[in-house]
Specification:
There is one protein chain. By secondary structure, the chain is mainly β. Helix content is about 0%, strand content about 50%. It has strands at about 5, 10, 15-25, 30-40, 45-50, 55-60, 65-70, 75-80, 90-95, 105, 110-115. The strands form two sheets. Strands 2, 4, 5, 6, 9, 10 and 11 form a seven-stranded mixed beta sheet that branches. Strands 1-3-8-7 form a four-stranded antiparallel beta sheet, with no helix packed on it. Strand 5 (about 45-50) and strand 6 form a beta hairpin.
C-alpha cells in the first residue's frame, strides 16, 4: 500500500475534519496530489488538486470551505474540511499524479466522511 488516508469520521453539519494522506517510502508526495470523493450511487468527483509547488485548485462545491495542502518533508498531503454539509458525505481518496496530467499513478484505500444534518 503506497498511500494511506486517515482522519475520516462522523460529524454534524457545520463541523470540521482533517484528512491526511501518508505516502509510503515507495511513493512520493513531491508530485501533484489530488483528493477525490465518491458518494453511494454517484460518480467519483475531484475535490481538490495540489500542484507540485503547492498551488491548489478546488471544485466549486467545496471552494471556501476546504483547504488542501501537502508537507513534502512528511510525505503527507492534507485536506482540511470546514463547514461540512450533509452533501459532503462520501468516501474520500487521495491520488498521486507524477506528470501532473490528470493520470493518476497511485490511490489510497479511502476514508469515510459522514455529515449528519
Amino acid at each position: 500500500v503506497q498511500l494511506v488516508e486517515s482522519g475520516g469520521g462522523s460529524v454534524e453539519t457545520g463541523g470540521s475534519l482533517r484528512l491526511a494522506c501518508v505516502a509510503s517510502q515507495y511513493e512520493s508526495i513531491r508530485v501533484c496530489v489530488s483528493w477525490f470523493r465518491q458518494a453511494p450511487g454517484k460518480e467519483r468527483e475531484a475535490v481538490a488538486h495540489i500542484m507540485i509547488w503547492g498551488d491548489t485548485v478546488y471544485a466549486e462545491s467545496v471552494k471556501g470551505r476546504f483547504n488542501a495542502s501537502k508537507d513534502d518533508s512528511k510525505n503527507t498531503a492534507y485536506l482540511q474540511m470546514d463547514t461540512l454539509k450533509p452533501e459532503d458525505t462520501a468516501m474520500y481518496y487521495c491520488a498521486t499524479d507524477r506528470l501532473c496530467r490528470g493520470m493518476y499513478d497511485s490511490w489510497g484505500q479511502g476514508t469515510q466522511v459522514t455529515v449528519s444534518s
